[in-house]
Amino acid sequence: MKGLRWSTRTRKNEDKHKGSGHSIGTSSNSAPSSHRGSTTSTNSGLSISRHGSLPKSASNLYLSESQSRSQRSLSSSSSRHDLQTVTDEESIDSIPGHSNSLTPVISSNKDSMTINGGSGSTYAINNLTYDNKHASSVSNNDQSNADIRSESLDRSHTPALQLNSDNFDSMVFKTGWMNKSHGTVHTPSSNSSFGSSRNHRESRIYGSDLSSSSSVRSSSNYSQEYRLYKAQLKGCVLNLYKSGISNAKFLDPTLDPPDTKHEHEEDPQLPTPPLMTDIPVSTSKEQNSSKEAGPISSPSSKQSTVSAIQTKDNETNVSKDITEIKYLSEIYPHPNLKIDKHDQIVFGTVESICHAVLFSVTLETKKIVDLILMLPLIEDFSLFFQCFCLYGKTFSKNSEKLTNDSKQFHKVSPATDELMTQRLALVVKTVLDVFPGFLLDDTTFNHIINLLDIISLHDDEISNSLKLAIAESHNKLNKLVSFSKKPVDQNAISKFVDVKEFLKLDNAILADQIHAINLTYNKIWSPQKDYSLLYDSAFNKNYIDLNPLVFNNRSNIHYVSRLLIEHLFKQIDGTPLHPKERALVLTKWVQLGCTFEKIGDMVSWLAIATIICSTPILRLSLTWQYISDQTLKIIFKDWVPTIVQLERRQLSFRTTNSVFILAPPNLNEKSIRENVIPYFGDLTIHTNDLTQDTMFRYLEKKIYRTKNAFQKWQQRLPPIEMANIQSTPQNPDVDFHHYLNYHVSRSRLNVENIMEMSLKLEPPKLDKLDAFANLSKRSSLLNGSYLPILFNQLFLDYSLFSQTALIGAAGAQNNRQSFVQTNTLSRSGKTLSVSGPLGISPEDKSLITGIDRIDEPVVRELSTKQSNKQMLLKSIRDVFSINMDLFHVLDDLTFKSVDDWDKKSRPASVVIETPKRFSVQSSRDSQEVINRLSVGVENMDFFKNISKTTDSWDEAVINVVLKSASLEKLFDVLVLTSSVFSKLVSINDISAFFKNHQGKYNEGNGAGLLDYAIVKLCMDNDLYTKTFFSTYKSFTTTASLLENLAKRFIGAKSCAVSIERLVKDDSRKKATDLSGTTNNKFLCWDSASSEFGKEHYLHAAKIQIGTAEALFYLINEHYSDFNDDMHNNKLLLDIIKIMDQEIIDEWDLRITALSDSVEKSEAEKSLVIDLNSYHDKLKELLQKIKSSYQRQLYRPVGVSRHNRNTMKILNSFNTITMEELNKFALDNSLDDPMVSSFQKLKTDSYGEILNWMYQLDDLILSHLKLATVKEWMVVSQLLEGFSYESLSSLFKYSQLDHSYSQITSGNAHPDDLEIVNVFTWLASLVNGREESLFKKLPYSIQLITNLHISLTNFFVVQIAQLEKTYESRLETCCIILQMLGFSRYKNSSIDLFQATTDSGSTISPHLPSFIESALINSILSPESRKFEISWKNASEKLGNTTSLKSVYNILDCVDASIKKFIEFDGIAPRHKNFCPCPGWFIGRLLEISQLVPNMSIENSKLINFDKRRFTFNLVLNYQQLLQTNDVDLNIQSPTFGLILNHYEIDPNHSFRNRAKDVATSETKLMKYQLRGIFNEVLIAEMYKIKREQKKREHLISQEKELKRSQSLQQVMKQKSIDMQNSVLAQVQQQSGFSSSPRSKRSSIVNNSRNSVIYTATNSGNGVGRKIGGFFKRPFSISGFSSSVSSNGINSMLVNSIQQNGAVAPIDLPKISKEELQEQKPVLSIKTFDIKKCINVNNFSSDASMIYCFKILMENGNEHLIQTIDSHDLSQWLKTIALSKRYSFHSKKYKGKTSNKVFGVPIEDICEREGTLTPTIVHKLLEEIELRGLDEVGLYRVPGSVGSINLLKNAFDDEGAVHNVFTLEDDRWFEINTIAGCFKLYLRELPESLFTNEKLPDFIQLVEQFQTDQITEEAFDELVRQKLRTLPIYNYHMIKRIFQHLHRVHNHMDTNRMDASNLAIVFSMSFINQDDLANSMGPSLGLLQSLLQKFIRYPDTYFVYE
Asked: Is residue 1711 part of a domain?
């Protein structure tokens, strides 16, 4: 901005000097500038005068170059610039960000500038540097011309521009003349000459040597028919304009005389990618070692240095010193003073305001004082003092100047002189009385002293009197703040800073010390005495920070607040305080605040209260959990109401006249009145947002308010005797002034800084990740990273997906063949199989999966099985879209029906929204197993609240839910209703719906077109709102949500217009047309419609009500989402203000206007009634929003009785060893009834066992109820977000490494292997930073997990108790088996459906209970497995059988016992079912998060809302299952389960080893031979560990490769930028002048022509405008001129035009920018549509084809262009290539230029994307590697051509970097489609990756090797060297391709594609497409041999990084 201010100031000075006769050019005594270029300040910004330009006012057109240069230091804004071709003012100076591009690097001290001279100095221009060759000439100029010198730089120092999206479209690359061919024309032989005789033109200008200039054309009878055009390449468009020369048809290059030198731009250097040889040799090993040594450093240190310098320069304040008075008159008002009709000042300049203060006779003194009080708020106070000093020196009653240094003088009358003197004294007196703080500002103080000296020239007595008063006040203030000039005493402040020492301090003593400081300030320097302390403007001075009586937390907090912050965020040895310690500190500060309030120090109290009640502190939930209720009551009841009052203005857009002076409640007490420190901050005057027209009136009002408030305060509190004030505390240990000094010496600390500290201390539960980045993450289903969540089960439980199929999909084999479940995942209408979708026929239901062995029982279970309860299964049907109809709205919204139809009326077809096939399955069997739905599909009442069901179809209402939508449409549905979109539903969808339900709807007769017109979609909007807000963080952010709600509230009017337009359209065909052709007109939110009228009022009101309801729900239910970002609160406050204005003001005006109309129709009356009702609703909602916001704004996060109970229980957990737990369980030292009653249980004591289980279940239920729906949703989002951190995130649990080492080490025993379950996995999971995921979970979930682990350990100890006898242990095992059997039976009441006895059933409906899962985990524990004899004998004892061979059959023995339990349970049943296991629930959340995609498979641009709704419904249903037992909750003993409140550890497996010894002894005692009943479980677990380890290694390898690629891309990104800068430097230099100018005569002629053309063109434009714009194009009036002047175009060219219309290029005039600005081009060629530019080889020496090139377009069109000479031809080719390469910067053609991928050179794409390899290559190959390496015939089997083209078009439309589609999209999910797309991309590359130039060299090397001319070692080395000669992008892309093909080759056993096959397939992608004849034959075979070697041994050849 510095340069911009300079330009403006210069322009003002220029205008000023023009008016006053002063020159602004180089001063007469300064040396003339030696620069060849200059700059001028014009209305359009800075422009550059270049070599050859002449001032318009120059009297002699024939000035020499030296004479011209001496007069060009500045040129007039109307001067002409004789530019060659390219960039002029528009192309450089009009580029945003480059208007001051010639600012030199300076070393600045404030506003003074010194330019470094010497040969070694450099200038930095736009982050680039160049040598300063003319520093000496610059430094010779005096300081007065420094600004001009800074821009009068030599042309050779033109800076390079950074081409970007802001300047590309305005960049002119080249301008010039050219011919364009319009076909061929037949010419007779006698007239074959392209041009006729030159008519002796040469003798007149060049001489009489005609023979040397003869032109002989080809004798061909056909030549090109050319037309002459002006051409300009601007941005990415080559425009051709009419020549404007009537008698010239075409240019003929042969007509130029010999040795003609045309004036050209400097050749642009096309960017060439760096070669591998340009980079220091670094092998992969070296690269890895460098990574270990440290991060890769950026090679742009010079650029960063320059950037830093420039940044510093930009921050330098620009001086605004006032040096002269423009209006030398005492007559009021000043011309620049704006006053209204009442003579009140509205606004004015500094000078005009000072003039009013000094010379206004109409304003009374009081008004003058008020005006002076405004000055510091209007502008920098120093400027006013400068102006006052100038008036005092300039205006005088004397006849001469008062001082010798006065530049101006104006005599006034003695009366005026006296008035001015009095007013100047009044200014000083006002400062003394009302602004004493300004005396602490050195600059202002010096100005005051200067002003006093000037006053002394008029009245010495007044001046001396004021000087004494000023000196006294200045000394008093300096003494007051003298502490700030002393060094900080660290020892003195340590007592306050140290937390432990602070906690020991007495509150009264500490408060007295602080209060004493405030009293001293209140006596000397309070806001009552200094109004400037209450001023909040951009001109505030830093001295305000020295006063502790005022503070603003948004800019700098109070010094007491800083101490509070230091205590709360204190770190000891790098570790923050424990939350309990922080709670103690916070409590101490609350008590200190109460002490301040008690003694009347309201400033200190508010400093504490506002920080404690600020968002950064309130969000510290861990800390607040330990704050006592009494402290919370003080904050809520006493503090918050006062803070709310002080912050009342932030919720309203209106200003309020009421102000508060904060005083203590006990003000009537004398001691308080004498020592009160009031807070006047509510009187602060803010001016930052004021406009000029409102500023004075606003300030006058606010200043009056402030004075009135002070007056009332004085009346309330009369002045007291200051002698009675005790200003210092008694015997202070340490003076608190030391900490105040410390505070002043530190940098400012505001609430934003505190927020950063708070986020580091307690990071948000859900990290603020890029929601859109998460959306684009692929489902784990595609890469197998979900394997760790597939836990081995003892008994099957319900799951959404088949574990067997998932294991196969991940490329692993399942081990438990006896338990393989061939479950199917399918959805309605299609079946998923490896070979593709299969149709389902109603007659053959056995083909539902396409697999014969999935038989009719499966179909029956999936489609017709009746369930016991209407609970979960409906949700399952929902997420899989089973038996549901879809309704598509436009292209970005899909609904689906949710009605229950008669199941027998439709075929049981099922479809799932998951990928259709699993190409990564590793075996033929697993390939045939389809991932399918594992349960039935009927009668689960999960949707009982989702849809508003209708009893009949009379209204054709369809109950729907939202299936998928774009982000914008999700917001639209949130605000609107689904019925709004009813008319836009596809007719095909409606037709299919009625066809499917014709029997139900119309007795089989179907539905007609009339039925279509009345279809209405109905959705439960309340439930959608709850679901949306519970899940929105998975696809957007809170800030984005608020912005979109604001957008819809503001845009309700324009949206209402579009809805009304749709409603009035009674034809569905029209509605469809509307949706298809004018999509942008429907639901338009952005623009305010001019059509908005009363007929739209109702729609607008409804929309705003919907928005307000959504906002209220967000604030009321999810306010905690605001606490992690301060920006969210700011957004919300802005929205509330907008709503306040719209609802209170705008709607009042609309309704009043309707009500006041004289004649109202019945419709209008009804409208008014409805509007009043809606208006009342809006006002009610607005009030609710405000109340809810204020209620929660100052409420600590997480402080509730519910959370406190959770933390209380969680904090009661202690860590103990398993041996200690064994001791507690033995002697019951904890006196826990749970232990004592369990010890008394017997096998046949059924009632006691039941009672014990029910008590335990009550305890569990009380814990489970602590987890809320919101917390479970957080768990779901945490799990999903955690999995996105890396591919191997879910594998990072400690047990995996430990178990893998166990099973791979030779001396390990499988008996010690731990069976991993969801609880132990979750508790040990860590991220890449070794941070525990478990610690991030909500505390209630942590508590539940710990409880389950503790209960499991309790059972383990009971089983393996060391002191038990064998008989006692056998009894315990029997009891546990009975408990397990009964718990499974008990929860059968909530089975999802009735289990079938059919042996073919593969579906388990079971939901395990908490107790059941704990029992199973304890049975499978290593300690329990050691007592095999006890389990076997217990089974035999209970079942009277000896057949137990596997633990999987262990419950076969409990059938008889269960009957007994049922009898006892039937007597007095207490629970309907046991509490469902939270581990099972977490497993289902994991399934959804990992296996259900985020984006719709049908259209991957749409967000899959099914997934969010299913998750939310699953959570709701789980909570409902808990509520069924809520009424029976009755914990008989508060100490029951006390033993569970422990964290159990087993150091060194001490307990396990002792249990092993006991088990061994029992086995020997009983002479039992181990039979391995747990072997199957152990084998299954070992298989699980091995497959996870293998998959983890594979994923880690992928991650490393990705990180390596990203690191290299980061380095190359900077290299690409540097290369662009280098190239663009050449582009800018083209805008200058050639180093080889024309002859002198030629230059003169062209200058004169240029002038004439310029004038004529302007004249034509002017005429065109005057006659109403009839002439749309500029035209020359010279054709109608009768002038015979030699300066006319026709008269000049008439003798040089040939008879056939040919003209020599040398005779063509210059083309100026002005000619082309308003002309309409006759042809525009987009460079991004150019396929290729070819230089025409004129082998036949055809004269009409010299200097020609051909433009080949993508659409097949061709353009033949002829240029003026060979150099011009080269420049056009290069600049077109340059424009094409960087066309992605274009804003005008965004989307057409920035995204195209196919057919674009790889170096162009890599530079555009800032990558090392094109992103499309990375994405396609990564997708293939994740799920396609085992695809049979990969790359050989072709994909669908249509699908390949769809994917290609998608990449070209959206690019590969920021595209919103995914490769999981159903349209191209097939892996062969993706592989085919990659092959197509390679084939369409414009050049072979080996480059056409070097390809023969590679082939030659292969030939030499095969003919034994070189050895294999030499061949390998030569190939490596040859690869290094490739461009770096080519090298790394080839490397990436062959590393990928090597992986494909390694899977040849399954994909049947070895290196030979791959080489054959890809050889055609590496040949020279332009030379197919030489590329085929033997060369092709040699190339294939080379490719085979690359595929087999990539590490041998690609060794460089």
From this structure: yes
